[in-house]
Design a protein that fits this description.
Layout: E1 11-15, E2 34-37, E3 47-52, E4 57-62, E5 66-67, H1 74-77, H2 84-92, H3 94-97, E6 102-106, E7 112-118, E8 124-132, E9 137-139, H4 149-158
Antiparallel strand pairs: 1-2, 1-5, 3-4, 6-7, 7-8, 8-9
């Protein structure tokens, strides 16, 4: 797939639990946040550096509070490191139609992520998920902010994105580990 218009590589992890950093250099986050990391930790690393796009902050996070494993998150499972054009092709493919009608991907605007959605008429619409570090939230429409990307996706699974459609994931998600 083409990567010519994709910003530099980052990996995302999903926050299984909330963490309130209590040491200088710790990164606080909410359960459901997607956190950006340069690389995943090794098995021997219990802490690693991440950035929370929702807050704009960077710091150390406990490895056991997050996962890169697919199956827990509507956001992480739908994340693909592809260009706009490749997103359209993937959303129109028969294999992807069995899983999701949407995809989260990097945006050419490094302050946002892109949400590509296949509508019932089979047209692919591209929206931006913006982050407001001052308010610690994210949104597609400024008047409807959400605490996390996961909250945003779940809301739009239950309520249509104006003039687009509802988001659909055609598979069950795993329960968070205790």
């Amino acid at each position: 797939m083409a990567t010519e218009d994709i910003p530099e590589a980052h990996t995302y992890v999903f926050a299984l639990y909330a963490y309130d950093g209590d040491q200088p250099g710790d990164l606080s986050f909410k359960s459901g946040d997607l956190l950006e990391v340069d690389e995943l930790p090794t098995a021997s690393e219990s802490w690693f550096q991440a950035t929370n796009p929702r807050t704009g902050c960077t710091g150390m996070i406990p490895a056991n509070y997050v996962t890169a494993e697919r199956g827990y998150s509507a956001a992480l499972d739908a994340f693909n490191r592809v260009s706009r054009k490749s997103a359209e092709a993937l959303l129109e493919s028969s294999s992807y139609k069995e899983s999701f009608n949407y995809m989260i991907r990097p945006s050419t605007d490094n302050r946002a992520l892109a949400l590509s959605v296949r509508t019932p008429s089979e047209k692919v619409v591209h929206l931006k998920i913006f982050f407001n570090p001052r308010q610690h939230n994210c949104f597609i429409y400024r008047e409807k902010p959400f605490d996390t990307i996961e909250d945003l996706l779940i809301y739009y699974m239950e309520n249509a994105i104006p003039e687009v459609c509802t988001l659909q994931a055609y598979k069950p998600f795993r329960k968070f580990p205790n």
